[in-house]
Each structure stands twice: as structure tokens, then as C-alpha cells.
Amino acid sequence: MVVAIDGPAGSGKSTIAELLARRLELDCGRRFVYINSGNLYRALTLACIRRGVDVLDKDAVVGVARNASLECRDGAVFLDGDDVSALLHDDEIDRSVSQLSSNVPVRHVVNALIKETARKHDVVAEGRDMTTVVFPDAEARFYIDASEDSRAQRRFGQGTSGLGLEEIRRSIAERDRMDRNKPEGSLKVADGVTYIDTSYLTINEVYERLEKIIRLKG
Ligand code: DC
Hints:
This protein is of the alpha/beta class. The protein has helices at residues 13-28, 37-51, 58-67, 91-101, 104-120, 130-134, 148-158, 165-180, 203-217; strands at 2-6, 32-36, 70-73, 76-79, 82-83, 122-127, 140-145, 194-197. α1 crosses α9 (203-217), α2 (37-51) packs across α4 and α7 (148-158) packs across α8 (165-180).
């Protein structure tokens, strides 16, 4: 089974997707692999930084994406054999990842890896184009949203950024603009998805809504 979740930065979709993958096994007896597709783009951005490749150099970035060893395992992302999950949310990666993820052949590398994982396992996959491009026929499809204010507050509260609240809000707005205007895989609310605004919901309330629908579909 594929549970596909899209939404903008800071909407809470990663938290809910990770929780789903963990709790669905306990609540429904099925083991789901959690795929955070944003982290795959982030890991490739890290690979470019480590190799001294400018993310604006499209051909060189495609070369990095095709040659890097990238893997989703146990909720973590492995780059060239190392778990790099803890390194993916610093400001340098935040600044460059939108550019890298606009690169269409790079998107194809990432999407192939995600589909390959879903051929072997039940997955909860989240990102910007899981419900539209990668899994348009998934059994359960969700769009998780939240107001710009609450998204900025949440990112600020995570404490992983050296930026102030207002700067984070601006960077989220800029990232939204780029995510919605990608040549391929742009963020949009697809026909047929279940739309949930999490601005005033707790994580448990969101979980309960999704779990009910997943049970019905799966
Ligand atoms: O979810 P996130 O903020 O960690 O995503 C990082 C970047 O990758 C963000 O700019 C959007 C982009 N992205 C994408 O283009 N497609 C996806 N499926 C997931 C993320």
C-alpha cells in the first residue's frame, strides 16, 4: 500500500508521515517504510556541497545525482553509506535545495529511487509531488497544509536554524514560491486528495483523521 502526502514546508507533513509509519504497524499490523523525499533532495544538495559542485551547474548536479549512493532505510537517509539525516537541515542546505530540486533529471533520479522502494515495501511517502507525479494512483492521498504564520513558528521552534522568526517566514514564503513554480513536480492540491489544515490541530488529531481514512482504503 502507498500512503502519499504532500504539503508546503513546515506544514507538519514530515512529523505526521513519520508517526504514521511508526504507529500503523502497531495499530494495523502492517509495516510501512517512511520516505521523506525532501530529505533525498537535501542529501543530494549535501553531496554537491561536499564535492564542490555549484547547485546552479545543472549538468554537474545531474552527474552527482546519478553517481551518489542514496538510500532510504529505517527512516534515515544514507549518502555514500553514511547516515546523513542529522546534517540535512542547516541553513546552507536550506538555501540551495530548492534550486537543486528544480532540476528535472535530478527529480527523475529521486523519483525512481522512491518507486523502487515502494515496489518492495508498503510506504508512507511525503513531499511536494507524491500525490501528483510519483503516486497519482496511491490508495491514500493527502494534502497537509498550515498557515504561513504557524509554519514559521514551527520551524523557529525546531531550533535548527540560526535565523530569526521573521527571516524564517521570508525564507518559507520564498521556498513556497519556488516549490509552486517548478517546471515539473510543482506543489499543488491534486484532484481527489484529502485536504487537512493543521494550523489549529494537534499532531494526534491529525493522526486520527489520517488513520481512519487509511484504514478505510487499505
Ligand atoms: O520538505 P523539505 O522542506 O525538506 O524539502 C526540501 C526541498 O525539496 C524543498 O525546496 C522542496 C523540495 N522538494 C521537492 O521539490 N519535491 C519533493 N517531493 C520534496 C521536496
